[in-house]
Amino acid sequence: MCIEVNRVSKQYTLWKIKGWTRRERQVIEAVKDVSFRVEPGRALALIGPNGAGKSTMIKLLCGILSPTQGSIRVLEMDPFKDRSRLAYRISSVFGQRSQLWYHLPPIDTFQLLGRIYDIDRVELKKRMKELIELFDLSSFLYQPVRKLSLGQRMRCEIAAALIHKPKILFLDEPTIGLDVVARSTVIDILRDLNRHRNVTIILTSHDTGDIERICEDVIVLNEGKIVLESKIREMRKNFFHSKIIEIEFAEQPNDLNLLPGVRVFDQNGPVVKLEVDLKTCDVNEVVSRIVACNAVRDITIQDPPLESIIQHIYLSGYSAEREAGQNAQIDG
Ligand SMILES: Nc1ncnc2c1ncn2[C@@H]1O[C@H](COP(=O)(O)OP(=O)(O)OP(=O)(O)O)[C@@H](O)[C@H]1O
User: Fold this and answer.
1) For residue 274, which of 262, 289, 292 has the smallest C-alpha distance?
2) How many separate domains does the chain show?
3) Ligand 1 shell residues, CB under 6 Å
4) Which residues cross the membrane (predicted)?
5) pTM of this prediction?
6) Rounded distance from Cα 55 to ligand 1 centre (Å)
7) Is residue 97, in this structure, part of any structural domain at all?
8) Which residue among 10, 12, 227 has the greatest number of ligand 1 atoms within 8 angstroms of its CB, and so is best to mutate?
9) In this structure, is residue 329 part of a structural domain?
């Protein structure tokens, strides 16, 4: 097994200053009694709303934090106790933080990391060549990192994370702030690493598109607890029951004459978002009907926002069922 998380909880303790002399202790339960396993070569997404505990979970798995309760094994090691040994076998990319030297070109960081990981000179040269080709870095390899675009920086960031050939790559919001093209490049690279180079990927993202293209498995966290553990395919089948159609009409529509199963999700002047229940009707039919009866400037079809899927998971009573099941197991 690549990763084994057994009944892990993580609490943060904060001290609030109250007046001149008093301090009040506040305990935040970021992760509550979480268990899961990841087989080698899988790609797992950890998703959930803000504050759900995703980053805390990634930090626990990398050994940056130690659990308050429970145990974690990553590649047969305790990530917190064996952190330096584990560092040779795993890697992490945090979208909001950089491991590249800001005022130096990326090539300098690669060479420095080569030294840190004790990679032999010839081998390092070979690996850098491979990564430069894979991530198409040659045109900006000698420019200071501060002068790179966000997309170029993220490609260098992931290349740097791979210099020591890690078995597991942890990514916390790797596509945050990237434009459509840069995001797509990063996603393709991550998918290739997982599918063809056997790198296990653990990813957090707020973007359902990223998650679907990279990962096979998903864990949904909310308020520190697992509310759903599933294959992405199953989650789509069970919970993605709707699509959002965004239409920009030539002028504000009076009567949309909507089919059953279609509701107005949002409206801002001539821009209307419709939610289509896929169990009741077909998206193509809805689009054809609207285009036939109205002057339309633009139409886009999207998946519903992650937050609304999570809300749906709750409304479907899934989490309550799961909790009841777990309690029954514990009692048994
Ligand atoms: N260093 C810290 N000290 C105290 N509380 C923290 C710390 N880091 C996180 N928390 C709290 O723990 C909870 C979980 O935070 P975490 O960052 O793990 O969530 P997240 O799912 O990654 O959220 P986001 O999507 O916003 O990044 C939140 O209530 C957060 O305020």
Assistant:
1) 262
2) 2
3) 12, 14, 28, 30, 48, 50-56
4) none
5) 0.79
6) 7
7) yes
8) 12
9) no
